[in-house]
Design goal:
Layout: E1 2-4, H1 8-18, H2 24-42, E2 48-54, E3 59-65, E4 70-76, H3 84-89, E5 93-95, E6 97-102, E7 109-115, E8 123-127, E9 130-131, H4 135-146, E10 151-159, H5 161-170, E11 176-181, E12 184-185, E13 191-192, H6 198-203
Parallel strand pairs: 1-11, 4-5, 4-6, 4-8, 8-10, 9-10, 10-11
Antiparallel strand pairs: 2-3, 6-7, 12-13
Helix pairs in contact: 1-2, 4-5
This protein binds 1-O-pyrophosphono-5-O-phosphono-alpha-D-ribofuranose and uracil.
């Protein structure tokens, strides 16, 4: 199920991310901002429970997050740019890493690294800015499910129709949060209009 972030600030940030004149330092700041908005949206259904507290004026019952550590799994390398907002806003987060790299000619993702915390019974947020052919995301979702994740949500900044279809084919019913759902892939499997190679723009390579 695809959720497209609909907020004026998201539209503003994504336009500057797309702009080819945006330099890496600004690109990293914008990546943080859009990922924070996506993190808030993607965690809308987290469980909460009552907590009795006293304000300076009177007792009251508020709500706090139910103790259940979130697991965030970035797909290296570009997914690293989306992790910090989760660490900043959630009190209890574990981070796992899946390294996947697309071959430049075939666009097929090759696995080169995997280090995951205990996932059994946990809700995992797989984060990767670009959902292009969907090969990387589908692969990462398979890995976290094999490790016992009960629920896996995909969070990306730009998605393509082809990528969403590929994830749906291999992982039906997966919740996908995206800031922009673009038109199509080009012959080299880059998203149009897209923003180019996210990892290169994030790290100035
Ligand atoms: C990019 C991007 C995704 C992947 C998406 O990574 O960050 O992980 O491509 O493409 P797909 O949906 O067709 O699999 P890339 O392989 O370029 O590696 P990088 O993050 O190290 O730059
Ligand atoms: N990876 C990127 O970084 N950009 C694309 O458009 C497709 C894959």
């Amino acid at each position: 199920m695809l959720h497209v972030l609909n907020h004026p600030l998201a539209a503003h940030v994504i336009t500057h991310l797309r702009d080819k004149t945006t330099k890496p330092a600004t690109f990293r700041t914008l990546c943080y901002q859009i990922s924070l908005l996506l993190a808030v949206e993607a965690t809308r259904t987290l469980a909460t429970e009552e907590k009795s507290i006293e304000t300076p004026l009177e007792p009251m019952t508020g709500r706090v997050l139910t103790a259940q550590p979130l697991v965030v799994v970035p797909i290296l390398r570009a997914g690293l740019g989306m992790v910090q907002p989760f660490l900043d806003i959630f009190p209890d987060v574990s981070v796992g890493y899946i390294g996947l790299e697309r071959d430049h000619t075939t666009a097929i993702a090759r696995s080169y690294y995997c280090k995951l915390p205990q996932l059994a019974g946990r809700h995992v947020f797989v984060v990767d800015p670009m959902l292009a052919t969907g090969g990387s995301a589908a692969n990462a979702l398979s890995v976290v499910k094999q490790q016992g994740a009960v629920d896996a949500t995909l969070v990306c900044i730009v998605s393509s129709p082809e990528g969403v279809a590929e994830v749906e084919k291999h992982h039906p019913g997966t919740v996908i949060h995206t800031a922009a759902h673009d038109r199509e892939l080009n012959a080299k499997k880059y998203i149009l209009p897209g923003l180019g190679d996210f990892g290169d723009r994030l790290y100035g390579t």
